[in-house]
Design brief:
The protein is α+β, with helices and mostly antiparallel strands and 360 residues long. The chain has ten helices and nine strands.
């Protein structure tokens, strides 16, 4: 497998979600009458920019991320177009607009997927009152693993493909498939499978080696669960609440593990782990990719909402402290956010080291 398309795919997904996040800040700031000095894609140093009106639009060297720089946001500048001149609630709408956009993106995607149907990668889908999941078994067997040097690999079958038939015989479950291949070990068979959008027919000789197996794959039927169109929005809302709690638990375990055991929790993945995960997800089709996008968007919204320095939630927390009378100068707040940013980068480095260890 070529890793470059996978890495680029993850970068594009993250970049689009972050740009949408920053666009939320940008549009809300404009709506509240705050002057936007710069809308940047990526992080500096700047490699290209253009100024239109009062705003500079820039593309920066490091591709993951983005930012919106507001007049009067990081200093004591005042005036009718400055961030500092706005009321507490106007500032709150601007600061939290980004996470709101990420929540909306996740909600729209989850709602659409619950109408179309999702695989059992999500356990215990919401069921309450008239809002109940409807489960159907897909046609054919989905391939989850292919043994190296097996008959299946020789035929060009890969993970995520769908086995349609062998010798014109269709299979409802893995037991029937195993029984058939066992009875035809060493024989020529005609295998029909779906690879992406293409249906392929290959003639292969089944093996009889214990190491490579007879056909040499693991395939199971997938149960697709969906909701009626009117029920999906309610189910998506409840599902997101459950995922928010799970995300907070994972983040809490990460921090707790770092401080108590000086190690990263097993359930936590950083950029390298996410690339590795995406390389597996992409093989199983568009539904899995959309689930990945929705989950990442929701995670970005949840983490950014936390009252930690350098995050939107941290900025909101500082505004709340000022609202209740705590004296915090813009200079001191900037220092706090810089320290928080450095700490977050440190955590990201530790998580990335953990990802590399898991890979090997």
């Amino acid at each position: 497998m070529s890793w470059l398309p996978i890495i680029l795919g993850v970068i594009v997904i993250f970049s689009l979600l972050v740009i949408a996040h920053e666009l939320g800040h940008f549009l809300m700031a404009r709506r509240e009458g705050v002057r936007v000095l710069e809308f940047g894609i990526g992080f500096p140093p700047r490699i290209w920019s253009i100024k239109k009106g009062e705003t500079r639009y820039s593309i920066n060297l490091f591709p993951i991320g983005g930012f919106v720089r507001l007049f009067g946001e990081d200093d004591a500048q005042t005036g009718p177009r400055s961030f500092n001149s706005k009321t507490f609630w106007q500032k709150t709408r601007i600061v939290m607009a980004g996470v709101t956009v990420n929540f909306i993106i996740a909600y729209v995607i989850f709602t659409g997927l619950l109408i179309v149907g999702v695989p059992p990668i999500i356990q215990n889908l919401p069921s309450f009152g008239p809002v109940k999941p409807i489960t159907e078994t897909s046609v054919g067997l989905t391939i989850f693993n292919v043994t190296k040097n097996s008959a299946a690999q020789t035929a060009g079958i890969t993970e995520g493909d769908k086995l349609i038939s062998i010798d014109s015989k269709e299979f409802q479950n893995s037991n029937d498939l195993r029984e058939y291949t066992k009875n035809h070990a060493g024989q020529n068979t005609v295998v029909v499978f779906q690879h992406g959008n293409d249906t392929q027919t290959k003639t292969v000789v089944l093996g009889n080696d214990e190491k490579t197996g007879i056909l040499g794959l693991v395939a199971e039927p997938i149960q697709i669960t969906h909701y009626q169109w009117w029920a999906a929005p309610f189910a998506a809302f409840v599902l997101m609440l459950e995922l928010i709690v799970a995300t907070l638990a994972v983040f809490g375990n990460l921090i707790l593990g770092l401080f108590t055991h000086a190690k990263v929790s097993e359930g936590v993945a950083g950029p390298i782990g996410i690339v590795s995960l995406f390389s597996q997800i992409v093989r199983f089709g568009s539904i899995y990719i959309w689930l990945f996008i929705a989950s990442i968007s929701l995670s970005l919204a949840v983490i950014n909402s936390l009252p930690l320095p350098a995050l939107d939630g941290g900025r909101e927390f500082m505004m709340i402290l000022r609202k209740i009378g705590v004296k915090i100068s813009p200079e001191r707040e900037n220092i706090i956010h810089i320290i928080g940013f450095v700490a977050l980068i440190g955590i990201m480095i530790l998580v990335s080291i953990s990802d590399i260890r898991k890979l090997f």
